[in-house]
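INSC protein
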Amino acid sequence: DSSLWRSADKNRINMAFKGEDHLDSLSLPVQRMHLMQVDSVQRWMEDLKLMTDCECMCILQSKPISVDKEEQHELILSSQSSTCDHLQLLLKRAWIISTELSRIAQKLEKNRWHRVHSVTVRVNCHVHSMINEYHTLSRGSSREMHQLEKLLIDKCSEFTAFTERCLQTEDEEILKSMKSCVNETLTTVAQHFGQLIELVLTQETQTLLRQMELSGSLVITESAIRALFSLAQEGAHLCRIIAQEGGVVALFRICRQDCFRCLYPLTLRTLASICCVEEGMHQLEKVDGILFLADILTDTSHSEATHAEAAAVIAQITSPHLTFTQHLGSFLENMEEIVTALVKLCQEASSGEVFLLASAALANITFFDTMACEILLQLNAMKILLAACSDKHIVDTPYSRDQVVTILANMSVLDQCASEIIQGNGVQLLMEMLCEKPSSGSAAEIAACERVQQKSAVTLARLSRAPEVAEAAVKLSCIPRLIKLCRSPTERNNSDSVLVACLAALRRLAVMNPDGLEDSDFQQLVKPRLVDSFLLCTNMEESFV
């Protein structure tokens, strides 16, 4: 990971680059269940406190240690944490309960009744702990929440008693008949638990949004936005809750107040997270969000950080992965000024991250239609991007090169691009991208390198219809490199998409320069049908002994 990246945004950016077989680009934020992505020992250490709390709950049966009200009040204050920590604790406890419920289903399937009962007891304790923790740290709860809590606690107690009765019989037929009842009870517990968590998160979101709306304090507003951002990182479901409760509208309201100007980057970053779901996009459209983003990008009084985060929102709402496109009509109306501002941001970027966000937005926009590519051509974007690639402080990761080569690939459908590529030494850059290798063993970086190789081969194949580009590619030894990528699965990390792109590029160059290939390469990689060459290359490492 680049040292320039904000630690809070590493997962947001890294998770966006998933390996795809087509030309894709940055999709922010990455929605993820980060609890699953930490080292197992670290995971156990973090859970240890929760598990021991759970055992204490079993022994003390939810009774307070101290009867002295003043002393008890001091204990609560000393353990009180920030809103963000409070929500993370709640989500962590909810994740543990959800995992344990899944474990019960697995043990039940295998008829391991002792394990079913022991895990049921643990779930019962965790539920009590979660409810007590929430009441300790929250300002109160509604009548509906109290009803759901009672339903869940009662059903958990009933479930524990039921599984205990199952231990007292060894009759297979009786256990078989009880199994369906246990399954039904488990389903009911899971439903009540889901409803309670949904309500808790909805009420917490409402509280945060009220703080943002009513408080004129910079500190309180910032704390509320950070907590909202933390919630949005937990996945699409929480983003939907935030959007449905008016989170997008509230965040845009913050961005329209000069007194909160220093919070614009954080606010826009949170918006980018929420707008990964359709509900967030609908809210953005209602408040003319795209026009507002265009205003921010073109307003030179804003900081580079604000411009970069506005570019991140653009990258999110234009992601090719989104299945809903109703908002793109209003985007097209403002596309020219947005593209112009993004090109300028790429040209003036002071860090790799700023360039990454701006170029990712541009890469996504080029998927719309050729009009975006024509605008880029008029703005000399090709020259700017190629120049940026020579600066290792700006284009410093395969993720950034992925965005650049995506733009080049989409622009290469225009005939005018060939001369721009030649003038900017772009063929040399494409050759370097064909040699892209990961600096670490991370899956995200390996996938990014595969995409860089694939898209550079696609770009080369498209541009080689121009004789001058094909000639330059031959002089730079692109043909031997393409042959090596085809014949050596390790060079392309066993990627089929890279193989297909390289075969296509090789065939295009072979037409322009048939003398550049040895007879065996021609007979195996060019002359047969593409599918036959593909099968030959994918079977090269198989042993038939």
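thats it. The radius of gyration is 28 Å. Residues 192 and 467 are 68 Å apart (CA to CA). bye
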